[in-house]
Amino acid sequence: MKTVARPAIHARFKLDYPGFSLDVDLTLPGQGVTALFG
User: Which of 11, 16, 28, 30 has its CA at 20 to 30 Å from residue 4's CA atom?
Assistant: First the structure.
């Protein structure tokens, strides 16, 4: 059996400020439509 790797977008963000912290680690599909709101 052969496994085919699918294309993907990997993102990792880490920010630290006084009173605010952002730590994101995500994988999105490389095909289709993806929207991020925030």
Answer: 11
